[in-house]
Specification:
alpha/beta, Aspartate Aminotransferase, domain 2, 7-stranded mixed beta sheet, 5-stranded mixed beta sheet
Length: 383
């Protein structure tokens, strides 16, 4: 029996098909909208690039390989991927989601889909009892982020999967923060893995793209139909850039994680910083779960200044030089974000604050620069 490839090898070779025309080592950019047919309905597997494109096929095969899944699907953004999942549901269905999640996901759920008679419950998923209490006969989907954005809460994927299966509910895990380098939710029982591949998967802040990975063939066909029918698919250049980024995913995630650990510890020991949120602290509520289901703790860190005021957080964000004040995350460069006014502004303040997302909180996407320079930058900005 052929030995399975290890993860680092998969980032280079997983799911890849060499160019059949000229043997190009890199996947070619098939910049075409349509394909020649030899006879009506007879083609070489491709007919129109909204439906399929060879460059996209290689990206979908690659992301499926990394997650140890059977089927990958690419979308024009992470939100387009989420949109496709919710479109598998019917009016009257209920969804249980974590109460600490990306603001765009919350906006999509509340402002777009609730008017189609879908009901969303937002609960603290660190406490599985909170999830159990919301399950009814109408519950069809559990939506989990782990680690969460931006509070770095950790959801026990295996326990959530057991609960979902017991009640015949689908479990989707947003794996954007961790990536398959750190955790693979399908192996822990999830039905769907979602990525805003714009972030760590592509890794260079130069593309917007989303992805789903599933094992179940019927679910794949349902999502594939929506992907084609709704048309929110990425272009070949987006797929090419993401494939290129994947080839260094393992190297980047290792450095992101190493740098974030040092920065989290620096912030925790700083007398002008109070709460520091990072999944790798031994006093983190779900540290043991994180240690069990994650290979590393990722590159995301959030913190609050000691005086807990927006004014101080604003001054820190404005004084940073190497950490660029910007939305998004997961690129090779370090970024700082003020979630309350940026990525999570669409969530009402009272809802944000219930999960601890206060006006004084800053979120760092720690890049792959020399960590000593990043610490000096933070030290200067904090003062």
């Amino acid at each position: 029996m052929k030995k399975k490839m290890k993860f680092n090898t998969k980032t280079i070779h997983g799911g890849q098909i060499l160019d059949p025309a000229y043997g190009s080592v890199m996947t070619p950019i098939y910049q075409t909208s349509t394909y020649a047919q030899t006879s009506p309905g007879k083609h070489k597997g491709y007919e129109y690039s909204r439906t399929h494109n060879p460059t996209r096929t290689n990206f979908e095969r690659s992301i499926a390989s990394l997650e140890n899944g059977n089927h990958g699907l690419a979308f024009s953004s992470g939100l387009a991927a989420i949109d496709a999942i919710i479109k598998t549901l019917n009016p009257g269905d209920e969804i249980i989601s974590t109460n600490d999640l990306y603001g765009g996901s919350y906006r999509l759920f509340k402002q777009i889909f609730e008017k189609y008679d879908l009901k969303f419950h937002f609960v603290n998923m660190e406490d599985i009892i909170s999830v159990k209490q919301k399950i009814t006969s109408k519950t069809k989907l559990i939506w989990a982020e782990t680690p969460t954005n931006p509070m770095m809460n950790v959801v026990d994927i295996k326990s959530m999967s057991d609960l979902a299966k017991k009640n015949n509910i689908l479990l989707c895990v947003d794996n954007t923060f961790a990536t398959p380098y750190i955790q693979r939710p399908l192996e822990l029982g999830a039905d769907i893995v979602m990525h805003s591949a714009t972030k760590y998967i592509a890794g260079h802040s130069d593309v917007v793209i989303g992805a789903l990975v599933v094992n179940n063939l019927a679910l794949f066909k349902k999502l594939s139909f929506i992907q084609n029918a709704s048309g929110a698919t990425p272009g070949p250049m987006d797929c090419f850039l993401t494939l290129r980024g994947i080839k260094t995913l393992h190297l980047r995630m290792q450095r992101h994680s190493e740098n974030a650990e040092k920065i989290a510890k620096f912030l925790k020991n700083h007398n002008k910083i109070t709460n520091v949120y990072w999944a790798g602290f031994k006093d983190h509520k779900n540290y043991k779960i994180a240690k069990n289901q994650m290979h590393a703790f990722g590159g995301m860190v959030s913190f609050i200044p000691a005086d807990q005021t927006f004014e101080t957080a604003k001054k820190i964000a404005e004084k940073l030089k190497l950490f660029t004040l910007a939305e998004s995350l997961g690129g090779v460069e370090s970024l700082c974000c003020h979630p309350a006014s940026m990525t999570h502004a669409s969530i009402p303040p009272e809802e944000r604050e219930k999960s601890g997302l206060v006006e004084s909180l800053l979120r760092l996407s720690v890049g792959i620069e020399d960590v000593e320079d990043l610490i000096d930058d933070l030290n200067y900005a904090i003062g």
